Amino acid sequence: MWQDGAPVWLGAEWDFAGDRALVKTVLLDSPAAKSGLNASDELISINGLRVLKDDVEKFAQNMKSDVNYEFIVARLGKLTKLDVRFDKGPRSLKEIKIVDRALAERAFKR
After folding, report:
1. pLDDT recorded at residue 25
2. What is the spatial distance between Cα 84 and Cα 35, in angstroms, rounded to a whole number?
3. Is the separation of the CB atoms in 73 and 80 below 8 Å?
């Protein structure tokens, strides 16, 4: 059985250095990757609003899918503008139900 993903998803994990918000990881084929966000980018602003450590969670809760956001990131000492579009999170496996237990047991005994 499948479980629907989060209504808004970026596909990046964050790390923090003091008040600075840094991209820790970017998942392959995620909205973050498709937008050009890279690991070790420092998020400076979203739509012109400065982003610090305490702001990351607040911004994430207010984002909408299928809306373009302008991210300014610092990458290798240079400011870069990225057009980022959040998407609906991927589905995940919630539960596996065994319909024919005898058949399943025979399959695992091989």
Report:
1. 97
2. 5
3. yes
From residue 32, how far is each of 74, 89, 104 by CA, in Å?
Answer: 15, 12, 39
Q: Which residues is 7 bridged to in the sheet?
A: none
pLDDT digits (tens, 9 = 90+) for 13-72: 999 999 999 999 999 999 999 999 999 999 999 999 999 998 887 887 888 988 999 999
Kindly provide the residue ranges of all beta strands, DSSP E only, lying in the chain, ordered along the sequence: 2-3, 12-17, 20-26, 42-46, 49-50, 68-75, 78-85, 92-93
**Residue 84 has which token pair?**
């980022």
3-state secondary structure at position 44: strand
